[in-house]
Each structure stands twice: as C-alpha cells, then as structure tokens.
## 1
Amino acid sequence: MHLHKFEKIWLVCGIGSLVVFLFIVGYGAFWQGTHPQSHGVTIDPYNIESNEAFKPENLGLTKVDDDKYIVNIAASAFNYDLGKDEEGNAVKTIRIPKGSTVLFQAATKDVVHGFHVAGTNVNMMVEPGYVSSLETVMDNAGTYTIVCNEYCGVGHHMMYATVEVYE
Amino acid sequence: MELAKKDHEQPSVQSLAISKPESRLYMSFISVAFISLLIGGLMGLLQVFIRSGKFTLPAGIDYYQILTVHGVILGLVLTTYFIIGFHFSLMGKTVGISIKQRKTAWVAFWIMVIGTIMTAITILFGEASVLYTFYAPLRAHPAFYIGLALVIIGSWIAGFVNWRQLALWKKAHPDEKSPLLAFMVTVNTVMWFIASLGVAVAVLVQFIPWSLGYAETINVLISRTLFWYFGHPLVYFWLLPAYMAWYAIIPKIIGGKIFSDSLARLSFVLFLFFSIPVGFHHQLTEPGIDPTWKFIQVVLTFMVVIPSLMTAFSMFATFEITGRRKGAKGLFGWFKKLPWKDVRFLAPFIGMLAFIPGGAGGIINASHQMNALIHNTIWVTGHFHLTVATTVMLTFFGISYWLIPYLRGRKLTPNINRLGIIQAIIWTVGMTIMSGAMHIEGLLGAPRRSSYSEYGGGEQVSEWIGYQMAQAIGGTILFIGIVLMVYIFIKLTFFAPKGEEEFPIAEEEVDAQPTPAFFENWKLWIGITVALILAAYTIPFIEIIQTSPPGSVPFDFPIGR
C-alpha cells in the first residue's frame, strides 16, 4: 500500500507522541499509583451497615492519626449521610485541616450515585454492592461542594454536602 | 478486445440511477431525523432555560423527563434514522437495491418507527425518566426497553440488507474492488451490529425480565459494562458517516479527487478494530473493575488516534492538491481556492475544525487518571456537543443540502444555499458559546445531567450559574439554528424548484495506485475485531461475574414513577 512521504513523516511523529503519551499515563498509573479508584470491595447492598465503616456511628469524619482522617459516606436518594453531631442533627459540613491525608469511603443503599468533591479529582461512581474509596491529600484550603454527579432520580440535584479545608 | 475496451471506458465510480420508490424509502428515514431534530432541540432549549435558574417548567413536568427525551431523540433516534437513510442512499447509488431488498428495508423502517413510538409514549407519560443510558437499578416501564429493542432490531435488518446489497454486487462484478462508499457503509454496519449485540443482550436478558418482574434482581455492573461495550462504538457509528462524506464526497464538491482509496479503507478498518474493545474508558471511576484492565482498554482507545491522524492528513492533502490544480500559489494560497460560498462544503468544513478541540477533549476524557477531574461533569456534555452535535451534525446538514434535493428531484437554489451558510454560522456561534461555557463550568466541577440547583449556596456554585446563563444564550442561538434548518429541510423537500441535483461521488486520480485486494477480506477484518474484543473483555468480564455482589431490586421511586 502506497503512503505519501509527508504522510509517513506525519504518522511517525503522531504515533511516536502517542507512544510517549501512553507511557507517561502508564508510568503514573503503575509506578506512582495514580490508578483511578477501583478496589473491587463488595458490600451487601441491602445492608451496608454490615460493613464496619458504614455503621451509623462510624459515618462522617473520623480522625485516625495526626493529619490522617477517614470520611465514611452512606449515599441514598437524595442524601449523603455523614452521621450526626452531638445535638443529634445530621452533619452536612465536614471540616478538615489543610494538608491532611483523607480516605473517602462511600457506599449506596439504593441506586447508583456519584460522589465528586467539585473541582478536585475526588470523583467516584458509587454503585450498589461496592465500596468506593479514594485517598487524597487535601492541599488547598477552601470550601468545596460535594455533588452527586450521577443521575439518581427526581431529587438528584438536591443531593450535596460540603467540605471545608481550613488553614 | 472489444470487451476489454468497453470495460476500460466504464467510469471508475459506480453511479446508478435512484428510482422514485427508492427515494421515498431514503427520504422516510431522513424525514424522521429532521422531525426528531425539532422535538429534541426544543427539549434542549427548555433545559438551558431551566438551568439558567430563571424559568421553571409548567404543569409539573420534570426536568429529567425532558432530559430523557432530549438524549433519546437526538442521540438515538435522529442519528440512527439519518445514518440508515444515508447508508441506503449510498448503497443504492453505488451498488443498487433490488425490489425485495427495498421491501425488507421498509420492514426495518416500520419496526424502528413502532419501537420509537413505544419509547416516546412511555417517556411522555413519565414512566421512563431514566435518561438515555437507563442505568439500573432505576426501573423504567417495560415498554421503554421493548421499544428500544425494536429500534435496534430494525437497524440490524437495515444493516443486513446493506450486506446483501454488496454481496449481490460482488457476485455480479467478481474481479472488481467494491465501491469505496459501499465498503465504508459495510464497515459501519458491521461495527454497529457487533456493538449493539451488547446492549441487546442487556435489554433482552437483563432489563426486560427484571422490569416485568420475572427476574427479582439485576447485576448492575454487568448491565453497565454491556451498555458501554455498545456506548463507545455508538459514537463512532455517528462519526463514520461523516467520514464517508469527508473522504469520498467533499473532494468531488471542491472539484478534486480522492486522496487515496486504500488509505480511506485502512482508516475505516482501523475504526472497526478499535471502536469496540474500549468501553471501560467510560467506566474509569467505577469501583468494581480491575484498574489494569481499565488501562489496557485506555491504550486500545488511543489507537483511534492513528486513523484520525490519517483522516486529517487526507482531508488537508485533498484541499491543498485541489487548490494548487486550480492555480493557487504560495504556501497557503490553496486555502483561498476552496469553495467557501458552497454550503455543501462550508458546513462539513466547520465540522472538521470543531473536531480538533473535540478530539483533544476526548484525549483528556480517556486519559485514565485525568478522567477523574471531568468524569460526569458538564465538561463531558460540552465535549459531545462539539463532536456529535457540531462535527457530525454540520456534516449531516452538509449532506442534506444535496441529498434531499437529489432524492426529491429539486434544486439547491442560491437562496437556500445562502440560508444554509447563515445556518452554519448561527450553529457555530451558538455552539462555541454553549459548549465553551460547558467545558469551563465542567472544569470547575459542575455536574452534568442535573436540574438547576444552588447546592445550599456554596461559593463554587455561584460561579457555575454564570456559565449556565451563557449556556442559555448559546442554546437559544442554537435553537434558532434548528428552526432555520427545519425550514430549509421543508423547503428542499416540498418547495424548491424542480430540477436535477448532483449526487457528488469523488473519483480516484487517473494514475492512482491500485487498492490491495486484501481489503475485501471481510473474514480477516471481522476475525481481528472479535479477537480484540475477546482479548479486552473476557478476563475482566469473568472477574466481574465471579466477584459479583448480590443483584439489585428495581427502584421506581427515585424517578417519580
């Protein structure tokens, strides 16, 4: 099959950059551990409380060490359950000091939901039967809205919470 | 000797007459597409209005019901009908259609229409606000799934007719290469068939029994995996007809020749290989799929960069060669020789330009880690409004300007041509504003597929709403473009003056290199395609089944049923 000389140059350069690009993506994923979240951890979708992390008392923010936190979230239409505060009111805002390492763990009680700390790469699908989890370092101070970004029904756009990263 | 001479004089491009009954068939498909454009466009207009925060829907109509109509009618109905009508026109023109095949094609048309009406009624009654991706365990009324299955089955029948058309032609022309456009249509229908098997299995085996109550639960991850096995080739099924026009029709319109017949075929074959074993790049942020397999499918996804580079080179090589033949001087003089005032060229050309940022955005979307920043944000909506709603749609409009008058025995008048140019410009302006605003808002984290919400008044959200206002402005301009296009469609179909319009099919250069015979080896192409699919999907699919959690019962409440 005949290829024009210029086209050969064009394709060699194009395919060459593609190879470099894919190598960088692969290097990041396999050597630096930046794979997108997928741990294949399953959970009973009819009883997520059977998993220690999603018992009502363990929901929301837990400090596990200096600068280390876990946030457990039970998602359901149309709410993120982040546990209750001392007065027994539902927690809607989580406050984390800047620079902390945070492990987000989420599971759904009903349909598929999204979990996106808007403007960051903490972005997970939350599917029935699986635990979604992602560990990150909250490096930038600010107020972030957590939005459900997978359609889950008529109240989908009312499903949110807030994360405050303070100095 | 005489016979040989006669053969030599045959034109290198098959150009058969299209009879009235054939035209009626092709026009029926295309007409459904334009009716869909108007309805789907109106839904889009309502969406951008609601998302601006200044309007609410009357009579308790739900935003997500309108969103479902918009997605189903534009993403599935408009595209499939236009493409099948275009496929049939190309096959009729290059290899011919028998009366029996035409009758079978009508069966395909009516099965699709019945399916479309069933689906439409279910959505309009609010029984299927599950969006066009119908992710389990949201449950729609069974009629929604059955209607969709009928649309797919109808489209298969249309594809089988296309294959039969080519097979019969090859029998009658044993030692000739198949016409380029017939080859391309066959690649696209083969890809469509293999890909839609996935969603057909999901709908027939999983969704229909489960929605009817015969199966108690559904395996959510398998249904999603089967959907995206289909969902990505679906977008190439939209794109390849545009490529057909770029490779084999645009050169004729600008007064040039096909750059390379074999290169065009090779790029289509590569699209067949690398369109299907790539669905995981839509599922990168899902918890149940092994990340190594995600990465393998990411690599396979990026292989389509190669035919895309080939296409870009071919297009601009054709433009330059043609311009120089017309006497262009200097490095870029050929650019001025292009027929800028011919809408049959201008509209698809803008589409090609839109594919540059569109493709670049696609690279970001499929990039394993980078995907997490934009997944399910409105960036993605901005992305496919550049690719399918600009690149593909403007090319389809460009095709309509000659195909409809050709089929209806009318003329594209200078007046309609001018309206078409205005339409293309309106579309470009509207889409630049709307898609641009969507891209930026998505980078800031705003979700797609969401009704207007202030999310409790967060700082970030106040920033988003300004961009939603811009989308309302862009969307309104686009709707004006849609109304104008539908007006042009009606004019070309019923009121343009009688006459003869050209069916432009480009020829090869007189001294073109012969196309290698292996391109006709369909068993090889399909064999490689299936092997790639099995390589990419077998192990992760078995893993998904083996580690499956309990299935999900149907949920009617969240969608308001």
## 2
Amino acid sequence: MPRRDDIKTILLIGAGPIVIGQACEFDYSGTQACRVLREEGYRVVLANSNPATIMTDPDFADATYIEPLDADVLERIIERERPDAVLPTLGGQTALNLAMELHRRGTIGAPGTPEMIGANAEAISTAEDRENFKAAMIEIGLEVPQSGVAHDMVESREVLGRIGLPVVIRPAYILGGKGTGIASTPEEFERIASNGLAASPIGEILIEASIAGWKEYELEVMRDRADNCVIICSIENVDPMGVHTGDSITVAPAQTLSDVEYQAMRDAAFACIRRVGVETGGSNVQFALNPTDGTMVVIEMNPRVSRSSALASKATGFPIAKIAARLAVGYTLDEIPNDITKKTPASFEPTIDYVVTKVPRWAFEKFPGTPAVLGTQMQSVGEAMAIGRTFPESLQKALRSLEQGRAGLNCDLAEAAMESLDDDELGVRVAVATPDRIFAVETALRRGWGIDRVHETCRIDPWFLDQILMISEEREALAGLTSADQPDRRVWRRAKRLGFSDAQLAYLWGMGETEVRAARLAAGVAPTFKTVDTCAAEFAAETPYHYSTWEDETEVRPSDRPKVIILGSGPNRIGQGIEFDYSCVHASFALGDAGFETVMVNCNPETVSTDYDTSDRLYFEPLTYEDTMSVIEAEQASGEVVGVIVALGGQTPLKLADQLPRELVLGTSPASIDLAEDRDRWNALCARLEIPQPAGGTATDLAGAQAICDRIGFPALVRPSYVLGGRAMEIVYDDEGLAAAMANLVGLSGLGREGGLSAERPVLVDRFLEDATEVDVDAIRDHTGEVIIGGIMEHVEEAGVHSGDSACVIPPVSLGPGTLAVIEEHTRRIAEALDVRGLINVQYAVKRAPGSPDAAQVFVIEANPRASRTVPFVAKATGVPLVKVAARVMCGATLEALRGEGLLCPPVAGDHIAVKEAVLPFSRFPDADALLGPEMRSTGEVMGIDLTFGLAFAKSQLAAGDRMPTSGTVFLSLADRDKATGLRAAQRFAEIGFRLAATEGTARFLAEGGVVVDRIVAKVGAEAGRHDGEGADAVELISSGQIDVVVNSPRGRGPRADGSYIRAAAGRHGIPLMTTAAAALAAANGIADTMAHSPTVRTLQEYHAGVRRP
Amino acid sequence: MGHDMIGGRTVREATLVLADGSVFEGELFGAEPEGGITTGEVVFNTVMSGYQEVISDPSYAGQIVTFTTSHLGNYGTTPVDDEASRVWCRGVVLREMARRRSSWRADGDLDSYLRNAGIAAIGAVDTRRLTRIIRDHGAMPGAFGAASVDELSAAVAAARTTDGCDLVGEVTTRSAYDVAGNTARRVVAIDCGIKTTILRCLSDIAEVTVVPSGATAAEILAIAPDGVFISNGPGDPAAVAQVPDTLRDLLGEVPIFGICMGNQMLGTALGGRTYKLPFGHHGGNHPVRDPSTGRVEITSQNHNYCVDLTGVAEVEVTHLNLNDGTLEGFRSTRHAAFAVQYHPEAGPGPHDSRYLFTRFADLIDANR
C-alpha cells in the first residue's frame, strides 16, 4: 500500500525530559521519525520540552514547539497547527499518556479531529490497562499470571486473599515500573500497594502472583497495515524475573530457547499485537518462562517504540523507529527497503552472528539512604551495550563500557571488594540483585562453588553461568603464565576471544597496560572489525557499522576522504547525558557537510550518535584506551585520519586525551585541558590574568584540607578534580563537616570505585561564596584568537547548587551591562590564555553589592575547555549552532571563514527569554532527601521560552512536572541566610493573593519585614511545644491537602531534620517544592505573569525569526 | 597441531580448507572424522535456533553446514527435535560450542549428539569470514579435520559439490510405512528425504503412507490416496530421474502438494527446469510474498536449486522471494497441484506458512 496522501500535517509528540525509565532512546526514535516523515513530504509539527535533543533542532521539523508536554498546551498547538494526524507512539510513555488524555477530551481521535496514527486509543487502552490486557490475552488463549485489579486498599486486600503471597504490584499507566514492587510479607504488601495506588495516574494497581525466578524474554514486533508481522529481535534477560528489564543485564539474541519454544513465543507475540490492535509500527511483548517445564506467560506489552526497541535497533541494525514512522503513514513492510543491504526489503527478520549484551548503569551513590537493591521498579539512569562474537566477550566489553572503574568481569583492582568477602557474605551478594551481583557471581564461580549452587542462589540460567565460568577458568590459566612465558598467539587469541582487556591482563600479570599492549601487538594479535548487517553476512552490507572482535578477517573498507574520529560520551549517567550526545552528533553533521568522513565511537544504544546513518562510519565500542586505539589504528590503516575529537563527549573522552597520540587530538591541546584542571597552575594563571577567584587550595588528605580551611575560613566547597556532575561535591560549614566530606571521598561510597584520591587527583577546597549569583558562559575561540561569546546564563538558584541542577536563564535578567562586560572580558582572556581551539565553558560567581546591579564583584570558579552541558540550550535559545561552529574550528576553520559560509550567524534578535530547568528523580528514590546541593542529581532538563522571565519560568516548571497553582496557601520555612530573598518571595505571593503559612521563626521574620502570615504552623513532631489550637504541623497540612506550594530552604545538607520530612511529604503528594528562596521568588513571579497573560505557544522557528514583546 | 587442556577439557585442534584455498583454524567437536578428514559441499545456514533440526534434516545429505549464529548447543538436544532417524549432513562448522546445555526439554548435549551420530564438527572458526566467501563465490567443497593443510587440500581437490548427484536415492525410505493421523483423508507421501515435522503437519490433515522415491504412479494409486505429497530432499534435482515421471502420471489423477525438492520435482514434471543458486537459501528469515494477496510470510528455507518455469503453460506463480525475486511457489491451473520451494512446516523456523497444509486439505476435499 502506498503512502497516505489524505494526510498533510502530522503532530509528533516527543518524550520530554530525560527521566529514569525514559532516556535519550526517544530522541533517537523521534529524530528518525522526523527525518522520515519530512522525506516523505509531510509537514511535521513537533512538541517536546527537552532542548538537549537532536529532534528539537529547528531544521528537523517544520514547526518545533519547545513547550511543556501538557494536554492544555498540546491543545493550543493543535488549535494553531490543525494537524491531520497525531503520531504518539515514538515519544515513550509520555506521548502515549498525553495522547490518551487528548483523546478523552475529544481533541484527537474523534470525527473532525486529528486522527491518531501508529496506535489508536482502543489499542493503547487494551495494552496499557492491565485488567483489559489480561482479559484480552486470556481471550486469545495465552497464559498470564493469576491476578486482580484494585483501586483502594480494601480491594487490594481482597485480591491478595485470592492469590496469596508473594505477589507483584504494578500501578497502571506508569513508565519504568515506577511504584512497582514484590511483596512477600503482609507489611510489604500494605506499603507497596498504597505507594502503587498513589503512583498510578488513575489510582489503579494490578496485583499478580509472583513468578520471580522464571526466565524473562522480550520480543520486538512490527506490524503493517496489511497485517504483515515480523520479529526484529529477541532479547533474553540474564537476571531472571523479579528485576525490571531496564535494570537487568540482557542479551540478544535469546540464548537458551529452543526453536520450538522460540516459535511458540513468536506466534504468541503476533497474536498479542493483533488482539491489542496496534495497526502499524513497533511493539514489544514481554514473556516469562518457567525453567522447569517451559510454561510461558505473557507479562506485558508496550504498544509503542520503547527502550528495548532502541536496543533492538542498535543490536540488529534494523531501524525500528524509522520503519515504524513509514508504516504509520501507510507503507507496508515489503515496500520499504532495508537500509543496510539496500537490495532486500524491510519485511524480513534480522538474523545476527554475534551476541549483544546490555548492562545498566545506576547512580545509587547520588541518593544516600536508598539501598542499592534492584527490583521491579527501574532505577538505572543509563546503559552500555557491547557487541562480541560470543557472550563472554560481549559481557566483558559491556562491563568495561560502563566506565565505573571496571576493566571487565573482575580481574581488576576493584575486585578487591568482592575478594575480601567470606563465603556467607558472598552468598548474600550472589542472592540479592544489586548493581554488583554479576561480579559476585563470577567470584563465587571462581571460588569453585559450582554452577548448580550458584544457580540455586541467584536463579541465573546455568548456561550463562557456565559461560562466566569459562572466563574464570581462562583467568586461572592465564594467571599461571608469567611474563617470562611469553604467551603465544593462540594464548592471546583465546584470552581476547573471552573478552579479556589489556587492562585485566596487566592486573593479572602485574604489568602496565601499555606493556601488555606492546607484547600483544608483538605477538601479532590485533582485533578484527566485523559488520552489523541485519543478515549474518548473507547479503553485502552497504553500511559500515562495526564492532571489534578477535577473528581472522576485518571488514573495514578503505576510504578516500580525510577522516575525523569523534569519541562519544558512553552510557548516560547523572552529569553526563544526552547533551553530550547532541554535541557529538552536531560535530558529525557539521564535519560531514564540510567534506570530512566522520567516524563515531560510542557504546550507548539509546543515542542518536549510535544510529548507523548519523556518521559515515560507526564503531560500537567501549570508550577505553585499548578499544579507542584499536579503532584509530584500524581507521589509519584504511585511510587518512585528520584527528580525534575528545572535547564534545564530556569527561569520558576527555579522560582519554592524555593517552592518545597528541598529534591526533583536535582542538584545545591536552596540555591546556590539563592546565585548566590542575589547581595550582590554574590559580597561577588566574593570578597572572588578575581575575579574582574564591580563596582555596588542593589537598590529598584531611590535614591538608584542614590547613586550607584554617586559611580561607568556612563555609568551604570541597570537590574532587576530574569528575563531572559535581560527583561527591559538598559545602561544609565546620571542621566536622570537612572531616566527613573527606572521609566520604576516600571511602568506597564516594569516589573509591572511580579511582579514589591520589596526588594526580587531589581534592579542591575553596571558600564558598554565600548568596552569590552563579553565571555560566559558553564561548568559542579559533586559532587566530577570535572569541565569540555563545551565551551567558544566569542561574536562578544561588551559587552552591550544582549548575546542572539549577534553573538558568538566557539572557541574564538581573545582571547589569557592566557586570556582563566584565564576564565577557574575563572569558576572552581565559580562552586566550588557555589557547582554546573550540568550545570553552567558564563558571563565575557574582557577589552583588545591595541595590546596584553593576557594583558587583565577579569571581571565576572554574573553566573547562570543552563542550558543556548547556551548549544545546544556548543553541536553542540563541539560534547559533555552537557545536557545529566549534567542530569546524577544531578542524582548523576560522570564525571569520565560517561567518562567510553562513554557518556562524549572529544570535537571533528578539525579546524572548529562555529558562532551562532541571528534572530530578527524587520520586524514584523516596528514601533520599529531595534537596539541591553542589552534587548534581538531575537526570534531565526542560526549556521554557516566552516573552517574560515569569512566563518562561512558569513554563519551565510545568514542563518539569510542577503545575504551579494560581491560588491557595504557600508554606514557607526558610534558613537564616535565605531570609532576605525569602521575604521578597513571600511579599510577591501575598500580592497575588496567596495565603501564607509558616513556622514560628520564619513568620516572625516575615512580620518584621511587613509580611503577615495567615497561619502559624507547628514544628514537625513538636508535640510538646504545641499550644492549644495551634494545630497541625507542616507534614500533616501537606498530607491533608491544605498546602499548595512548599518553600523549604535548608542550611547545608543535614541529617534527617524536620525539613526532610516536609520535603518528603511534598514529594509524596506531588506538591510543587522550592528548596531555595531564589526559586520561590522566580515561581511567584512566574505565577503572577501567568495570571496576567493569556497562555501562548510559539515555534522555535518563530523565536529564531525574532519575536518582539507587544 | 596438538592437544591442549582448557578448563578440564581436551581441545583437539583442527583446520578447515575450502576449495578456493582458504584456510581456517578451529577445534574439533563431535566424532573423529573417518580417516581423519570430513569432506562435503560447504553451505551456511542463518537460523539462530533449531540447530538439531537443521543437522538432522535429510536435505543436507552430502553437505557441511556452517551455522552463522555464534553459540550452538545452548539448549542441548532431544529426540523430539530430530527431523530424521539419523543425521545426514557430512559435518558442522560453528563458532562456539556450548560446554553445558540448559533446557528442561533436553536429554543430551550437542557435542555428544554429534559423536553418537558419527558426525564431526569444527568449532572456534571465523564463520563470518567463511560465510562471506561462500556468499561471494558460491557453495564449494571443503574439508576439515586434524590433518595437515596439505592433506586437507588434497581431500578438497577430490571432493565434489552436489551438482549432478542424485542423493534422493540415498536418503529415501527402503520400504513404505504408515503414519497415523486425521482419518478424514489419506495421503501418500513420496519420500525424497522427508522431515519428521512435515509428517507431523500432514498427519494433522490425513492418514499418511510414506513410500520410497522409486514408487511408481501405479503403486501409489493402488493405495487409493486422496492426495499425494512430494517431500523435500537433498542434492541436484536434475539428477533425480524417476520422480518427475511418477508425478506426470499422477497429475490429473489426484491432488498434489510439494515442498522444496517436491517443488522442483513438480516443476520438472510440468515442463520446467531447475538451476543452481550461487549459495542457496538456508535460514529462517526469508520473506516470501503471495502476489495475489500481497501478504508476506517469513519462511524457513533450505535449498540450493530453484525452478525456472519459463515457457511452461498453465502454471501460476503463487509465491516469490522478496530478497532475490526467485520463484518460491506455483500452482498448476490445469491440475490440482501446487508446490512451494520453502518449508511451511518450519522445524526450524516460523509458522507463518502452515496454512498451506490446510490449503492442501481443502484442495483434496474440493477434488473428491
């Protein structure tokens, strides 16, 4: 069937900010969809609040709305754009839920309104509503776990009475298993069921018999309008049922299914998609299999492109999102060519001749109080994927891809933690699913526990365990060799084929990694590069998508254009996510346009950078020294390599800069990168430039840190060097705090696993400037010395909150022109002094004299000669493609020349103001305190854009998930240092009609400032202090719905003080929470502006053309 | 060359040599080859599951099967998955042989299965390199074993492909036998190397009598069948003498359904010819379209030869391969007869095409 021509305009709903359970895979899918639909000649309207995405680049859609993903907002977009169809299946659960809300309102999917394509409302509701889904599966003869649905605790207990413990509890309409859990005791049941009811947007949970320990599988299915169905990929979870699939180590293809079982599963998946009624596109169906008798049950189905679809696409080379978009507009599978072979159609099932392993990456260390135990609720923040010819090889590659200080499956320094455990402790580590379980499993196998005992303990399939045992046995054999034995080619090859890295062998043999490498190369053992081609080499592949392995033949083809290798940013983590992938992708686009052949190296399956058509060549490889060098050598052997870009992928490639051949590092030299990182040399530089810095110094132990604090005084900011995202950064107010911070840094809970402290990696101790405004600047300098300022961002929260967690605004709203000129001048001089070639980000703290915006002192905090997290936001706000310009500059172009080409344009003129707000995952970690601090903890960001700061800020809050009320009661509890700003915020709230509630101390202070508090609230838990009639405390008021906004600014990050109970209550009840007075003031202004203006939506293209305030 | 202990297991080093001179290192699994060397025509199969079904498929007689998938033997073996009472392929080439199986269905492991069947395998081979050679240069003879490269090269030089070989006579049953089934119909199945899964599918629609490939039309008609089925089988269809004649005699007498070699036999009987594909179709993911409905089925395939119906009257193409456009199925517009080149019974492979057995039953019923 041909393309539908009854449709002209299609609204694509994006997935919004990166959150746990919904990461950049939806940028990958949305970007593919935008490209395809425009290629097909449709007018594409895109709605997505996430500025760090490729899809929100203004040239990917005809109309790009960076607006909050909210039903009211989408209605306004629909009213304005009048699309013929809405495509909701490529924007994750967010898009699906929004589409369902719009359908309920009658805005889409009804006669005379835009049609829903991809999946209709009935199909979505059949798949998403757990009760409907189970009934549908039973109807077509598939087995499902015994279960019941409940809408309150009474119903829940009735269902439990029927099924019996243990049970799994799953809220309806949620993503990433939020609110899901396994209950084995009545107490656990009460807690998980009530949390689940609260987590479900419709207050519904499914309670089902637990099948923990069964084998878990997923099939990726595609269906077209003619009812042709294909399976793109089978995925088997190494971790059995009980661990969320997003938190499981998974492999593709399925390894322990016989064809008889696989075909039965395939038939069931087709029956499922047909019954649910997903007419076109991709879906994923999850199954569990009883390992003792093969009983198969259907667990769930996602009627949309999912995280697993992204994994399946990268694992097979089959572009699921692209094909799904084509199917949605009417094509059938056999009408679409397979991009990789060009000659065969998309209506086939990929077959692969390698093993793909995905390992999640977690961030428990960022959320103290949260146990690092995995369960049915997804908690990982990113993942790495690796390809090898066998499972052991791909597993070891995946583990070293995680960049958590591991060189593979143990056999490295970090294994000491497991080695030191006695058998009882080790048994617990094997039994309980945690991020480290796989390492415990290998340790137990190496101790000779035997496969059966380990299997009994962890339920991981014996086949996987035997494969791991092969690694252990090979290690023992290799350990018996000494360097004098000179392992021959066969020994090297066998070790390498099991995935051992040079770093592991170096550890084993007590040598340096470079020595191992030299010995290996001397023995003639180098990796070969194979191709991901969807067809196991049956047909010739046109697309150079490679992975390394240890075979006879390499498939890298010669090239005739000069090549640039771009090192990506690895797995998503807090502090390093989609923003850096955006930069790598932009570099690839710009350099491709300039005639270079672009070569991408990355190991993150969720990203646009790992799409086979983003760069000319793709290497899906770990970003380690060994793996990166192998790619560089393979590319040098096949043509001219101009250089390697290390400055765009965040800390991951930057850390490699020192080890790579110097002459190949493009842009700012490794020496300059080091100069900016080395505290003493950086201080000397600032002194020479006469740019003020907060007083400070470096230390490698507590005594050193104390000596610095004696000199500079408290409060002090303590942070390690060479980390991103403020890892382990703290503000300390006294000696005790300093000692605790230093202990944390050397301990395992802090940086130990990332390498710990050393003379090369000291701790930075600086005077912390209270009440200062933080400012971020992104700039570019070329080799002639010209510097352009990309953007100056003023942070909303004061200095001390990590820049990644702070809201910020372009242009600055409270800094005077004099201050801005000083900041620009400092930036230019720093860029010059560091001889920057490309991007630089400089952070400042501005300490203002009261009353005069220009009588301010500007301190430089730090400079990083690389792409920053804010670059995509700046580019969206200003219309200047900063990374594209920077990539060209790194390859030798001048800014002048790029201006001539038209690539470098002046920032757009217009009155718009853009606010970036961080999105935090506290609801996933209910035991962690929801406080902002110097350590970054946000997973993603949104952008609000409008013509006043208040409107832009209010949009950013709505986009981040906080709907600001326009009336009601604000509860304030302010730390002393926040009270001045807090007073202004309280005044503003009062002016616009809010009632104020406050604790006694805050109320007294506000009264002194002339603001009357309507209600005095008791201190939390202060029963004894309560007088008659004084009433409830803040937690009780929040819980009973009497508070609409909470402002709670704590001093430092303390133990569980009453503030933490207030914040937890706000989080639990979904009440907007501001933890800084500055944010409260911004919110009050935002609410005021929202009330004064009628809401509007505008496209990014309009803003870039220049919109003036009326 | 030598023996080496890894993880408590003796590694038997081995080498594979192809007719074009390519040499591959590997390790020996399964049985010791007779005379130390295994020879055969090297083909590759791209299925990711179903190794036992492939290895025991009689259509692989005379061939060495290379599996492109990385791991083999993971879920062991079970008699239930055998496609014949013995293994017919000459040898197996693979990348990674499982040491330990894991499946509730299994009662043995693949290495022992091969040893018991007297079949040698070579593992740890860069099977992707091998596959690319065959893809580019066509199926060719190969030899593997613990022998020297020179000895293996000599063995390859003496080996031949399946061109011109009538292997059907080798694999067919020596005497007729019955398979109990649906009593609504009676089908005679001409065994050119029939797979157990085909018998299972046929018995769903009929009681089946399996006859040797040499059975004449008269002998078959004497059984009074409601339909005749002609099975898959190994080797060069052009070299199979008697079966097309038998079919010509049966056309018009009784409804006929053929699979794979059966497709080639029916095509020949109707006046077509067969030709060899460069490296054949061996896998479980080939898209086939029925031009009349536009429906696409993902099929299990295992053939080296294809039917050319150019100039043949009164036939209609019913199925085409979407990868290379080759003929995958046709029917006679004059007689009640149809055939497909691929394997609707699966075993291994997808079940998308099992409707063809129902179509056969319907054809039988319409012609009674």
